Structure formats: structure tokens, C-alpha cells
Batch of 3 targets.
Target 1
Amino acid sequence: MQEIKIEVEGMHCGMCESHVNDVVRAVAGVKKVKSSHAKGVSVIIAEDGTRAEDIAAAISAQGYGVGKTETAPYKKRGLFGK
């Protein structure tokens, strides 16, 4: 699993977050997504091999600006994560 962070420009409210989340979930390999219009970022948990470029293209096709992307191995957090 991998964690992909994508800067998204043009999200102004909770509906924008939901719209971006729906678009990202439609990309093959995406397991979880959370977007924040306040931070201007979407954080995606996806299977290894899922391309950040494909996710960014899906977001861009909906009219949102896409900035910097970062990909890192997913580290489970929380009570049972290490």
C-alpha cells in the first residue's frame, strides 16, 4: 500500500471535497481518500502500482488545479498501527 498526497487548487467547500473524493475513488486501486479544502490537499491510500499521475489527471479533468504530488509507503497509524 502507498500514501499519495496531492495538492488540489479550487476546492472551496465541503461539496468540493466530496466531488474530488468521488472522482478519486473511481480510479482503479484507490482504497481510501480524504480531501481538505482548508489545506488544499487530498490524501489517498492506494494499492502499490496505482499511479499518482492517473489520480491527478482525474482530478484535473473535473476542473480542479493539481499541484505537487508526494508518494510514500503507507504506514498504518492509530492504536494498532506501528
Target 2
Amino acid sequence: MAITTLELDALKPKDKPYLIREKQRHKLDGTLAFKVLPSGVIDAYFIYYIDRKEKQIKIGRYDKKGKNGITLKAIHDKYDELSEEYQSGQGGVDIKVKKQQEDAAKEREKQEQAALERKRQLQGSFQQLIDSYIDYAHINMSKSYYTSAKGAFALNLKDFDVTIKADQITQEDIRAILRPIRQRGALVMANRMRSYLSAAFAWAIELESEDTGLCAPIADNVKFFIKVNPVLGIGKPLKKESPADRFLTELEVHKFWQALDASGMHIHRKNILKLMLCTGARVEALAGLRWDEIHLNQRFIHIPPIRSKNGLDWIIPLNDIGADILSTTPRLHDELVFPAENGIEPLRADGINQATRRLCEQSGIAVFTPRDLRRTFKTLSGKAGISKEVRDKIQNHALSDVSTKHYDLYDYFDEKYEALKLWNVALSRIIDGSYAEFGLKPVAAVLPFKKTA
């Protein structure tokens, strides 16, 4: 029979705790009991048996009004709940142990959720991955790779949601990035972008793997948690790239030079493009020129190893056209010869590329890239009679022979200087339109060439 509130309130404390049990309706119901403590407080318990051993689960502390404990009704409700659970196990399930297991499972789940939340807070976005990889490339990769990758990301990710967590990027996301590049017909750029994305994800995976030796400039506490490179399995948009063999003919060089002079292109971009034709140098090397690298009195440019693609000093003799271009270049920066508008970094190669494309389209010249001017120098100076060996030296092509690895800073200077003087005559006649008088004969066949012993 159930104990009433009046009966509970009438219970008196004793020196030792004592237990009052309700009459058990069925052995599988469990028993509701009340323990009266010497202090006078009363605790309710659910009593049950496992393997004939008595077990207890505390229901709560009784309080008639429920202010400092729970009411008798609430105690009965909890008893019914425990009794039903005990009955469902037919007396063979220790509901106390079960509850402990359930509580432990809830605690594990709570901890897992907390860990996931900590991971979410630490987890880097796609933009953070790209920024970190670009910082890494700036320190560890070549200047040309860094510039190209940075420009490709800036151009081709501007319409993509880069706030997505890096490890949530899927193959479909990669396809979505490459799709507009393919649609505008820039398949080579699509190949490059695919390569840069793959490299960035591979770098992040290696960065967070065990025993990695990578040094990564990355924001504190940022992790990417990338397990699989999403670019893997996505084929190249352009399966087979044609070898780069575009070069300008003498007529195209003539038209291009005249178009440069007549255009509204900034003089710094004009002069970089002209210097490429004069010297055969790389666009990045010329765009990054510093005033202290130019020695007009000695007629040469010295590109230090840190800015040279092959990591070697690069001495470029200056012919008359090249020297005139540099001597008339306005000095708008204390250190940089061709500064960007922000006054912090040199002109960007991609900006020069875009300006060249616009000028070609405006002038009716078949579109080419600034890199093609380097190839044009190589081809037309060879046609003018300059040997491949000297042309390679002028353009700082890396050779693998021992003498190249341990060479004099001014090795081949005289040969390069004499060759560029010869090219100066040929280029002058190309610019003024009189190149046709040579026909198919090399310029060297009709011009004196002083060989240095």
C-alpha cells in the first residue's frame, strides 16, 4: 500500500537512519522505500534485486512542497518509470548499471560533440588553405611559380565560396572551379589551376602528417584535417598541351613595337616588354628589377640568385637600345624600377600579360604572351647569326656541366656583350622596317662581328 504525505510528514528521525518500505505489489515491480536520516530529511529509493542481491537507486529527496526537493507525486512518477524499466528486463537487468552505462555514453557523446566543436573552431577554410599555401610557395618555390599560382587563385576563385572548410571541398567543387575556365576556352589555364589546387591540398595533407619536415607559415591553431586530395581522379581539361613554340616574326615585332609607342599603356609596362625583346630576359626578372641591379656605366644588369630562376647570378649586358630604355625610365620608386601602384611590390606579370593581350587585339596582331617575346629573342637572334651557346648564356639557361656549376660571375660577358651589340643592329632594323633587306641571310653575314679571344 502506498505511503501518503501525512505518513511521511509524521515520521520522526532517530539516532541512526532507518528505512520505511511500501508494500511490494509484485516481485518484479521493485519497491519504493524512504530512508529517514538523523537530520530529519527523507530520501526516496527504488529497491530491486539482481541475483537475489538487493540494489538501490536514489530517486531524490522528499519535500512536501517541492521547493528543496521533489514532491511525493514526482517520487511516485519516477518510481513507476524505474519499475517499468526493471520489469522490461524481467529482473535480470541491473538498471543502476544500465543507467551508469547510459550516463557514460551520454558523457562520451558530450565530449565528442565538444571535440567536434573545438575542431570546427580550429578548422581552416578553403581560403586559409590557399593563403597558407601561397605563403609557403613564396618562401620555398620559384618566384615565377609563386606569382603564377597567386594570380591564378585570385582570378579563378573570385566567384567561388572560399569560406567552406578546406576538408569539405569535394571533387564536384573542384569541377565547379575548373568549369568556367574551360568554358572561356582557357584550357591551358585550367590545367595550371588544376595543378595548383592539387599541390595546395597535397601540401596541407603532408603538413599535418606525422614526422613532416615542412615549414609552413600558417595561422596559429589552424588545422585543415584533410585526409584525401579532392583533385585526385579529375583529369586534365587539356589532355595534351601543345609545346610552347609561338614567336613573333620580324614583321610582327615591327608592328608590336610601333603599337607600343602609340598606345596608352603605362611606360613601365612598355619598357619591360621592350627590354624582353632587347635582352631575352624573363618577364618576372625584369618586372622585379631594382635600381641597384642596373649598372649603366658598365652597361649591364645583375640579377642576383634570389631572383634568378636557376638560383645563379645572371649578368645581362646592355646594348644601346636596352641602355636607352633604362636611362629614360622615370624613377617613381627609391628601390623598384617598375613598381606597382601600391608602391610596395613590383608590377605583376599577369597584369603585363593582360596589357599585352589588349594591345594585340587593338592592333590586329595575333595574340601572344610576354613569355613569347623571350622565345622571339631566341629565334630571331639566332637568325641574326648568334650561336645557340651564347644565346643560352644570355638567357641564363641552366646547364648541368661542372664548369657551369662553378663559374665566374662574368664568364662569357664579352661574348654576350658582342652578341647583344649584333642583335642591337638587327633589332634596330626590325623596328624601323628595314629588316627586309637582309632577306634570308643572317645579320651576321652582312655585319662585322668582333669575336673575343
Target 3
Amino acid sequence: MSQKNKDRLHMGKINFLLLLLAAILLVIGYFIMSLNEIVISPVILAAVYVLLIPFALLYQPKKHE
């Protein structure tokens, strides 16, 4: 990825790690759902879709000057 595109996305290492964590939690949530666990899996999936993914996309670390 070129530096121009990376600057335009404003995504750093932390953002990609959070998105990776979200993907792992999604797989876990759907796996738990396949086991007919109807209490915990919707909570996990809702938290990932509503909280973690938007936070991972919008988070920008503070720049030290």
C-alpha cells in the first residue's frame, strides 16, 4: 500500500489489530450461535457490530508533539 493511500485511510497498527480482534470475536459468536446458545452469542455479535468495529475504524491515536 502506498504512503498516500495509508495516509488517506488514517488507519494504523492498532486499528488493524482491533479489526482482527473483531473478526475473531465474530467467528466465536457465530460458532457459539451454532451450538444453540441463544443468550451469549447475540450479546457478543451485537457488541462487535455496534461497538468494536466502529471504534476500530474511527480510532485515531493522539499524536505526541
